[in-house]
Write a structure and sequence with these properties.
CATH architecture of the largest domain: 3-Layer(aba) Sandwich
Largest sheet: 7 strands, mixed
Strand order of the largest sheet: 3-2-1-4-5-7-6
Order of helices and strands: HHHHHHEHEHEEHEHHEE
Distance between the termini: 21 Å
Structural class: alpha/beta
Helix content: 40-55%
CATH class of the largest domain: Alpha Beta
Strand content: 15-25%
Number of helices: 11
Length: 280
């Protein structure tokens, strides 16, 4: 299959002004809510930049901030929503799976290559390496971390963050996740959370195929998907963030089209985020 033209799949907003879009649609009652939500840094980032890397990382960090005391208070209330806690759980899953992978490979010969694609702010790499170091397991000396992203500015930010956090050496790869030449030649662990929601089944199946082909034998893929919840869906639609919702069974069905040695899924305690772990 020919790779599609490079595009930012998470940039789903199509209206130049969300307030004017609400007026055109006759959703006058939503305007005060929209204005209030913009005081929250999380909501404002979502409104202005769709599902950006900063939007995701704000949730992963879980530290409220906003315009004035009200904006910070509101940000904290949004971060406390079950759907947002669930969103954060995919970061925890990637972090913990990476730590477990490094522990399993500790003391074994060979060089390991760890990839986040698209990487955004690769917090799961930094925190996964940190959790492994805290485990007391023998050091894994030969590890190279990689980040792949289509946005050059984001990639530069990712490189600085990874190196400051100890996930080094860190090798940036500027390119599209659908372009096979954007990847390292072979990798042992891939984390990809937050992208599946912006892809239809055909695109997601193709991405899984690329991941499978790039994984070394015994390599691990960690990825995610999410189910629809009314309040979260309303807020996402308010920000014109278009989502493809999937269950754990949907993710597994797509992954099992490939000859992975093992595929397992789990759902978080909120029943929203699904995590898929597949072994090459």
């Amino acid at each position: 299959m020919t790779a599609p033209e490079p595009r930012f799949y998470n940039r789903t907003r199509h209206s130049e002004s969300l307030s004017w879009a609400l007026l055109r649609k006759g959703r006058v009652l939503a305007l005060p809510l929209y204005a209030a939500l913009r005081r929250s840094d999380l909501a404002r980032e979502g409104f202005e930049h769709s599902g950006s890397h900063r939007f995701a990382d704000h949730i992963y960090r879980g530290q409220p901030s906003g315009q004035g005391w009200f904006g910070t208070w509101l940000d904290g209330r949004l971060l406390a929503l079950p759907a947002v806690h669930s969103f954060r759980s995919r970061f925890y899953a990637a972090r913990d799976e990476l730590s477990a992978f490094l522990q399993a490979r500790a003391g074994t010969p060979g060089h390991l290559h760890i990839l986040s694609a698209p990487c955004g702010i690769p917090r799961e790499l930094v925190e996964g390496r940190r959790a492994f170091a805290a485990s007391g397991r023998p050091s894994v000396a030969d590890v190279t971390f990689h980040g792949l992203d289509l946005d050059a500015a984001v990639l530069a930010e990712a490189e600085q963050f990874a190196r400051a956090g100890g996930a080094e050496p860190f090798v940036p790869h500027h390119g599209d996740v659908f372009a096979r030449d954007s990847y390292p030649e072979a990798v042992d662990f891939i984390t990809c959370t937050g992208l599946a929601e912006f892809l239809d089944d055909e695109r997601l199946a193709e991405l899984y195929r690329i991941f499978f082909d790039r994984l070394a034998p015994g390599g691990i893929l960690v990825t995610s998907g999410m189910r629809r919840r009314p309040l979260a869906d309303y807020l996402l639609r308010l920000a014109e963030i278009s989502i493809h919702y999937r269950t754990a069974q949907d993710l597994e069905r797509l992954a099992r089209q490939l000859p992975f040695k093992q595929v397992r899924t789990r759902v978080d305690k909120f029943g929203i985020q699904s995590i898929l772990v597949a072994e090459r």
